[in-house]
Amino acid sequence: MAAEHDATGPADGRGPLQGVRVVELVGIGPGPFAAMLLADLGADVVRVDRPGGSALGIDPAQDLTNRNKRSVVLDLKTHDGLQAALALVERADILIEGNRPGVTERLGIGPDACRARNPRLVYGRMTGWGQQGPLASRAGHDLGYIAVSGALGLAGPAGGPPYAPANLLGDYAGGSLYLVVGLLAALHHARSPGGTGQVVDAAVVDGASHLTSMIHGMLAAGAWQDRRGANLLDGGAPFYGTYDTADGGHMAVGALEPSFYEEFLRLLGLGEDTTLPSRDDPANWTALRERIAARFRLRTRDEWTEVFDGSDACVAPVLSLAEAPRHPHLAARGTFLELDGRTQPAPAPRFSATPGAVRTPPALPGAHTAEVARDWELPDLLALDKEATP
């Protein structure tokens, strides 16, 4: 078992959601990540795995989205398995599922069936397309969801296709985080005087679209062009983008404010260059970018990192996933943890009085049946688990 790690602050590392019970129906992508976030913040998350092993296709012991959870194995297609799952639901505050619309209803564990057993239950539904609409029943993945939301069209160079930002923008930012906000808001309502449970319909297309609110405002105000590589924040501005270095590395520049831009030019070695095009006219941006790019190509990434270290030029090295935990600032904050020989991000955000923690390693399917049966007062789980666990 991993050593417990407090994300920050005093207390016992159990987090502000201690006492909140969550049932997670096995899935992949944004649902498990949302459940992990709740677990990191102290919720008691019981993952209902299905017989047959991990859905993600990797060793369950390496699936960090299952940390801080407990697992039971139930076959929801059997009467006894379904009844055991519904018994968990009776004792839960939140349920998370990530199936296509109608699937849990057909299994007998849809919102109506669950809330008939537990009227205060918050039923979280995580999908790409949402519960209604022409595409609701269609298959999909992160890339398609952010494509139709307009978010994908923001990423990439002006002269090429958009690039896929892993599944961070859709699944996790537009999906998981919006689901968690919805679940906690609905839980607050359910626990208020006269409050009831409800269904939270979290769709990646909705969340990803909502993330573009500021950009839509700028577009309406005429301060944003509806194309890539032509705007202040999409790499169009030469003072907000990335540059190659002599060793094949990259530096990220975010010198938006005039004072930061002056500091940037000074340290880059262009502060006294009177021939440098003005940044205020977008017609100069291509020429200005070429001048800046030429300077960056003169030194390595590490050399430029040293040049800009300690300044307000808003310049940072572009690090890989393996390099990021060693960055001095992230190391000082404990942004990453090394537990059981595995590097992983620490819980976030941080709380001064009720910090979250990594309390347990990724839950293996069916590993916690006895604990859950005891803590949730469901002795029948033990017999079912012996039948269902591979």
From N to C, what is the helix and strand string? Answer: EEHEEHEHHEHHEHHEEHHHEHEEEHH
Give helix % range. Answer: 25-40%
Kindly identify the CATH topology of the largest domain: Rossmann fold
Q: Specify the overall morphology.
A: elongated
Number of domains: 2
Oligomer: single chain
Strand content: 5-15%
In whole angstroms, the N-to-C terminal distance is 22 Å
What is the helix tally? Answer: 14
CATH top level of the largest domain is: Alpha Beta
Chain-averaged pLDDT: 93
Instruction: Give Rg in angstroms.
Output: 24 Å
Strand order of the largest sheet: 4-3-2-5-6-7
Unreliable parts = 1-11
* CATH superfamily grouping of the largest domain: Crotonobetainyl-coa:carnitine coa-transferase, domain 1
Tally the beta strands. 13
Judging by the overall fold, what is the CATH architecture of the largest domain?
A: 3-Layer(aba) Sandwich
Global structural class = alpha/beta
Largest sheet: 6 strands, parallel
Describe the structure.
By secondary structure, the chain is an alpha/beta fold. It folds into 2 domains: 5-211 and 333-388, Crotonobetainyl-coa:carnitine coa-transferase, domain 1 (Rossmann fold), CATH 3.40.50; 240-244 and 250-317, formyl-coa transferase, domain 3 (2-Layer Sandwich), CATH 3.30.1540.10. It is 35% helix and 15% strand. It has 14 helices and 13 strands. The protein has helices at 30-40, 79-90, 103-107, 111-117, 142-149, 168-190, 204-211, 213-220, 258-268, 285-296, 301-308, 328-333, 369-375, 380-388; strands spanning 5-6, 21-25, 44-49, 69-73, 94-97, 122-127, 198-203, 240-244, 250-254, 315-317, 336-339, 342-345, 357-358. A hairpin with a 2-residue loop joins β11 (336-339) and β12 (342-345). The longest helix is centred in the middle third of the chain and has 23 residues, at 168-190. Residues 1-11 have low confidence and may be disordered.
